[in-house]
Q: What sequence folds into this?
């Protein structure tokens, strides 16, 4: 037995060495890409804020990006869902063109006034760049999945400055209720190193201050649970509204480049009519203000509406920073009703709405600790896990699998590794007529997983 244990430890040394090298390369690529992206985003945002009239060119910009994707990017238009599908069902290396296309498309979206985020761009760049190492290092299928997960972790960690949250996000986002611990070491390495690479390029992240945190008591726990229920429901509404609008637009506008053009007309008109410039772009200044003073109680609805229209009509970017805005302003509005400090509840809402919409409560709890300090950790965890439960089996990522259902209904009757996009079809077959038609894919990645199989 002792000999076996010594042999096992010796066999781990090449494994550690291999992933030290690979994760370092992934971290350098993803961290550098994120640094360039964040600097570009800052310049685009500053120029747009100095020239409000540019929002009227949003339909033209959307159509232009749509044409480029229509001509060159059909194989990568699945975005984050494509990467998740490749981890679960490896088929072919993600085309390198995903990185420059999503980078350019996102910067253009922000330059002209779409309400999108940055996480999707960073994750896609990290995943696409990492996957190019598949042939360089002659990766096997199992190792390729870990490589892609490391790319996700590196991209997320470097774009938000949260290395531990980024590492866990790459593990947790793949399936509800299940994480792959065989990828823990590469993802942690990639997340931590990518964050350092981004910082080494001189990029700095926004800091948020919570000056008052109430102790963990019966009332504070109950109040955060109540807020977590609202956060989860709002995350569910956001995810469902975005997917339904996207499906509706695809049905009625068959030519893809015209979808963001139509969305751009709606957004530009609404911004002008409502004087709603604060609801476009990332909205970082408003997020910061939600930690400092009371905000208008309808701010979260404004950001939610503009983001749903932007993403649902095909503008490129991410969902997470808008979700931060929605959560922070919603928490700010709920704080007086629950007799909690508005900065504290803004911070919990910041991460909890994202936790519910993305089904990643562990990563978001770590994010709260990394961004706001360890003292808020217990209450943030309660808020994130409550929101996760109450958001239901929905999410912003269609390709996410149901590794382990949130409650008994899905644990008993749903096939393991089912995509959340197909859960509605399972419910229809369970509750509808016996001859209900079989499910079909809900996105354009072409991967319908309606079979029971173990997560690799």
A:
């Amino acid at each position: 037995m002792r000999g076996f244990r010594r042999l096992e430890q010796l066999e781990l040394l090449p494994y550690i060495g291999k992933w030290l090298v690979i994760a370092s390369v992934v971290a350098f690529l993803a961290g550098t890409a994120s640094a360039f992206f964040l600097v570009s985003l800052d310049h685009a945002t500053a120029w747009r804020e100095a020239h409000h009239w540019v929002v009227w060119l949003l339909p033209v910009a959307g159509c232009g990006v749509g044409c480029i994707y229509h001509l060159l990017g059909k194989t990568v238009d699945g975005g984050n869902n494509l990467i998740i599908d490749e981890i679960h069902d490896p088929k072919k290396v993600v085309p390198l063109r995903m990185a420059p296309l999503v980078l350019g498309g996102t910067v253009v979206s922000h330059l002209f006034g779409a309400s999108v985020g940055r996480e999707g761009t960073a994750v896609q760049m990290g995943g696409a760049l990492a996957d190019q190492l598949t042939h360089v290092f002659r990766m096997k299928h199992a190792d390729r999945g870990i490589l892609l997960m490391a790319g996700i972790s590196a991209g997320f960690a470097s774009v938000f400055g949260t290395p531990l949250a980024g590492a866990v996000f790459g593990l947790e986002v793949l399936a509800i209720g299940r994480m792959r611990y065989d990828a823990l070491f590469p993802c942690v390495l990639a997340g931590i190193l990518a964050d350092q690479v981004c910082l080494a390029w001189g990029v700095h992240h926004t800091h948020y201050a919570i000056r008052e945190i109430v102790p963990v008591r019966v009332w504070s726990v109950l109040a955060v649970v109540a807020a977590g229920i609202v956060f989860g429901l709002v995350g569910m509404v956001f995810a469902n509204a975005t997917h339904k609008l996207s499906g509706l637009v695809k049905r009625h506008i068959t030519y893809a480049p015209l979808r963001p053009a139509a969305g751009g007309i709606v957004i530009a008109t609404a911004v002008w009519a409502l004087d709603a410039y604060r609801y476009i772009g990332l909205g970082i200044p408003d997020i910061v203000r939600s930690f400092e003073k009371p905000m208008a109680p309808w701010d979260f609805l404004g950001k939610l509406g503009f983001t749903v229209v932007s993403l649902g009509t095909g503008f490129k970017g991410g969902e997470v920073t808008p979700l931060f805005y929605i959560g922070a302003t919603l928490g700010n509005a709920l704080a007086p009703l629950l007799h909690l400090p508005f900065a504290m509840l803004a911070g919990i809402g910041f991460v909890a709405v994202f936790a519910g919409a993305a089904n990643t409560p562990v990563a978001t709890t770590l994010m709260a600790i990394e961004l706001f300090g360890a003292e808020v950790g217990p209450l943030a965890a309660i808020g994130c896990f409550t929101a996760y439960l109450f958001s239901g089996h929905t999410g912003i990522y269609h390709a996410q699998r149901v590794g382990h259902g949130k409650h008994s209904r899905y644990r008993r009757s749903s096939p393991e590794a089912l995509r959340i996009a197909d859960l509605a079809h399972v419910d229809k077959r369970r509750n509808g007529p016996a001859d209900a038609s079989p499910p079909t894919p809900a996105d354009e990645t072409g991967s319908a997983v309606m079979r029971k199989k173990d997560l690799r």
In short: Strands lie at 175-176, 401-402, 418-419. The longest strand covers residues 175-176. The chain is about 65% helix and 0% strand.
